[in-house]
Specification:
The complex is a heterodimer of chains A (about 55) and B (about 300). Chain A has 1 helix and no strands. By secondary structure, chain A is an all-alpha fold. Chain B has 15 helices and no strands. Classes of the chains: A mainly alpha (about 55), B mainly alpha (about 300).
C-alpha cells in the first residue's frame, strides 16, 4: 500500500498544498493587519490626540 | 473542488498553483494594480498604507477573477487563436468548470473584502467592473459587434477610478480623466494587434474591425482614435492631476504615437506584408509604453507636489 517512490505528481500536489496554505496564512495576516489599521486610525487618518488631554 | 478534479482529470494534466495564477491574467493584473495605485495616490486624500495595500490587492484579485471568468467563457475561441492557445484551459491544465468556480469565488471575495477595507462605493465599482468585463464584454459584445473593443475597453479603464474612490470615497473629474485616457487608448492598442495577428480573430469568428470592416477601415479608425486620444492626453496636463513633468512626457509620447498612427494609416496591406507588419508591431509596443509612462507621470506629479508647487 505504501508508496515507495515519490512521483512527480506528489511533488506537484505538495507544492500546490503548500502554496494554498501560504495564501490562506497570508490572508489571515492581512485581515489582522487591516483590523489593527482600522481600529487605530479614524476614517483613513491617524488619530489626532488633542494636547492637554 | 480539487478532489473532484483529481478524479476527473488524467494525472498528467493536474494543475499546479501557477496554472491557476495564469487564469487570472497576471499581465493584465499588473496593469490594473499600477493604474489603480496611481488613481489612489493621485487623489488628494492620504490613505493608511495597510488599508491602501490591502485595497489595491483586492482590486487585483477582482481583476484576476474577471480574467478567470473570461477564460472560462472564451475557452472555445482561445483554443483556435494562436496567441491564446496555450492558456490553462485550452492547454488542458485546468478545466473550464474550475476556472468558473475560481472566478466566481474570487469575485465575491474581492468585492466583499474591498467593501470592508475601503468603502461600499469602491466595492460597487469593482463589482460593476467584473460584471462589465465578464458579462457585458466577454459574453455579449465580444462575439456580436466590431465595437467590442471600444465599449469593452471601459472595463480596463475603471481601476484608476476605483483607486481614487478607495482614497476619497467619491468620484471626481480627475478620476474620470484617467478613465478616459485608458478608454481612448484601448481601441488603437487592440486594433494594431488585430492588424498583425492577421487571421487569429478571423479563425475564431470574433467580429473585430479587421474582419467586419476590413483592414483599411481599421487603419483609419486607429488614426481617428489616436487624434482624439492625443487631444485628451495633452489636455490632461492642464488639470489637477497634470503638471510640467506630465506635460513633457505627454507631448513627447503623443507626438510619437500620432506619428505611428499616421504611418499605419498611410500604408496599405502590401507595404505591411513586405516588412512583416513592422510599423504595426512597433506601434503596439509603443502603446504599452505610452500608457505606462502617462500614468507614471501622473504618479510623479502626485508624489512630488512640493517640487512643483508653482503649477496648479
Amino acid at each position: 500500500m505504501s508508496l515507495h517512490t515519490e512521483h512527480e505528481l506528489h511533488k506537484r500536489r505538495k507544492g500546490r498544498n503548500v502554496g494554498v496554505g501560504l495564501l490562506l496564512g497570508g490572508f489571515v495576516v492581512l485581515v489582522l493587519a487591516l483590523t489593527v489599521a482600522k481600529v487605530t486610525s479614524g476614517d483613513f487618518e491617524l488619530p489626532r490626540i488633542e494636547e492637554g488631554q | 473542488m480539487t478532489d473532484v478534479s483529481y478524479q476527473d482529470q488524467p494525472h498528467e494534466a493536474e494543475a499546479s498553483l501557477g496554472d491557476y495564477f495564469a487564469l487570472m491574467k497576471p499581465r493584465v493584473m499588473s496593469l490594473v494594480v499600477f493604474t489603480a495605485l496611481v488613481g489612489l495616490l493621485a487623489a488628494p486624500v492620504s490613505v493608511n498604507p495597510v488599508i491602501a495595500f490591502a485595497s489595491i490587492l483586492f482590486v487585483a484579485i477582482g481583476a484576476g477573477a474577471s480574467g478567470a471568468l473570461n477564460m472560462w467563457w472564451d475557452a472555445d475561441i482561445d483554443a483556435v487563436m494562436k496567441r491564446t492557445a496555450k492558456r490553462p484551459i485550452p492547454g488542458g491544465k485546468v478545466t473550464a468548470d474550475e476556472a468558473k468556480a475560481l472566478g466566481i469565488a474570487l469575485s465575491g471575495l474581492s468585492v466583499m473584502m474591498l467593501a470592508l477595507s475601503a468603502n461600499l462605493l469602491a466595492a460597487g465599482l469593482l463589482a460593476f467592473t467584473i460584471f462589465f468585463y465578464a458579462v457585458v464584454y466577454s459574453m455579449w459584445l465580444k462575439r456580436s459587434t466590431p465595437q467590442n473593443i471600444v465599449i469593452g475597453g471601459a472595463a480596463g479603464a475603471f481601476p484608476p477610478v476605483i483607486g481614487w474612490v478607495i482614497a476619497t470615497g467619491s468620484m471626481s473629474v480627475e478620476a474620470w480623466l484617467m478613465f478616459a485616457l485608458i478608454f481612448m487608448w484601448t481601441p488603437p492598442h487592440f486594433w494594431a494587434l488585430a492588424l498583425f495577428m492577421k487571421s487569429d480573430y478571423d479563425d475564431a469568428g470574433v467580429p473585430m474591425l479587421t474582419v467586419t470592416h476590413g483592414r483599411r477601415a481599421t487603419r483609419v479608425h486607429i488614426l481617428a482614435y489616436t487624434v482624439l486620444l492625443v487631444a485628451l492626453a495633452v489636455g490632461t496636463a492642464f488639470t489637477a492631476i497634470g503638471g510640467p513633468v506630465y506635460l513633457v512626457v505627454a507631448v513627447v509620447l503623443n507626438a510619437m504615437f500620432l506619428k505611428g498612427a499616421y504611418d499605419i494609416w498611410r500604408r496599405d496591406e502590401d507595404a505591411a506584408l513586405a516588412d512583416g507588419y513592422a510599423v504595426e508591431k512597433s506601434f503596439f509596443k509603443l502603446s504599452l509604453l505610452y500608457l505606462f509612462l502617462h500614468f507614471g507621470a501622473i504618479l510623479v506629479e502626485a508624489v512630488l507636489p512640493a517640487a512643483w508647487g508653482i503649477w496648479t
